[in-house]
Amino acid sequence: MPLSCVLFTIGIISMQIYPSVGLLLPSLKQPLVFICVLFAGLAQFIYFTFENGKKNFNKNTMIYYFGMLFSIICMVFISLYNSGIGKSNYHSYTTIVDIVSMAMYTSGIIFTAKNSRMYTYKILLVLGAIGVVNGTLAIFSGDFTAFDRSNTWTNSYILWFSLFPWLALLVFSLFKLKQLSLLEKVITYFSTLLYLVLGMLFLKRIVLFELLLIVFVTGFAQGYGRFFKRGFIILIFSTIFLYIGDSLLDLNIMKYFELTINRFNEFDTVGGFNRVEEFTVGLSGFGLLDYLFGVGFGGLHFGFGDPRGNMHIAWANYLFKGGAVLMLIQFYGLTSSIKSFFKARESNNRNKLASSSVVIIWFISALINTFWGASAITMLLSMMLFSALTFNRNDELLLFRHRRFIY
């Protein structure tokens, strides 16, 4: 494994253990964030300085990476400008969170190298294994008898965050890049089950939304008949596990499933507040400069009445933090991933299909979810994004041979 990939792995693992370690030893939360940013930065330094990372750039990766760096520079200057004229409210902790978030979005650049992309799935498995441990602790330590959202932001809810790699693991397994071992199957399907069950116990609509996206995106890539055949098998095993879970834990999971479905009737709301209203109120008073460059690092909004560091809709948060510059760069990442998806689908390049599918699903789910703050999922998104955008000579040759065979 290249040194840059080792450093990246240490950084993302520090974020993956952040929920559980943070609960047991709160004093280690800030050191873990520091380790993440430090090692993510060192990984990029090693990659460009000693591993000749520039040779792996193509147009898409270069535009996205340097676009993000340009956005960071703009955010620094707009923060200093707004603070100097007393225009916006800023907070030191929010500044740290914003810096960490932007550092995570650029950290995946090392996966433009083929010898780093070889370890993508192994990194996912390590993160998934940690998530399974945390998810199991969440199931047995939580109180799920109230049939409402009173257990949100409890210790169990925080542990649930570390299960987010489930989606990438499941998508990679559906494309069957290789024959999965028993351990790989256990980690993949158990992390999926824990994420979905806990998500319903917390009445999280995002779990059902992401499932639908997986069906449509991977089904379109491989053919819906093939996908639904696998999905039917997974559904049978999930039903068995749910029945066992109900019996062992005495939880009426189907009742929670019904309540989660009912929450789609209030699709715009979060905790009784309207997410769209948060966006419109939070951006009220924005001028031309704000729409272009955002409020920068540390900026607060009052969309819910009290000051908050970020918005619940990721695309709205991009506009709020980095203005049109950051929002357009992320949109470029999405559209480029869609192009990679179709190229990979045409040539049956399963690695590219898997990574681009994950990026598309996560960017669409960003319409109701946030990808910001100290979380491994932001680094995972960056890892998947740069893997999807990188088409090296072998990838292009595979596509060329396929087109030549067809035409």
What does this structure look like?
- The chain is mainly alpha-helical and 407 residues long.
- It has one domain.
- Helix content is 72%, strand content 1%.
- The protein has 19 helices and two strands.
- It has helices at residues 3-16, 18-24, 29-49, 59-85, 92-107, 114-117, 120-141, 155-160, 166-175, 182-201, 206-222, 224-249, 253-262, 275-282, 288-293, 314-347, 350-365, 376-389, 393-406; strands spanning 269-270, 273-274.
- It has a two-stranded antiparallel ribbon.
- Helix 1 (3-16) packs parallel to helix 7, helix 3 packs parallel to helix 5 (92-107) and helix 5 runs parallel beside helix 18 (376-389).
Tally of individual domains: 1
Biggest β-sheet strands, sense, barrel? 2 strands, antiparallel
What is the quaternary state of this protein?
Answer: single chain
Q: How many β-strand stretches?
A: 2
Low-confidence stretches: 268-272, 396-407
Lateral arrangement of strands in the main beta sheet:
1-2
How many angstroms separate the termini?
A: 39 Å
Helix coverage percent: over 70%
Number of helices: 19
Strand content: under 5%
Mean pLDDT figure: 81
Shape: globular
The assigned structural class equals mainly alpha
| Order of secondary-structure elements | HHHHHHHHHHHHHEEHHHHHH
Gyration radius, to the nearest Å?
Answer: 21 Å
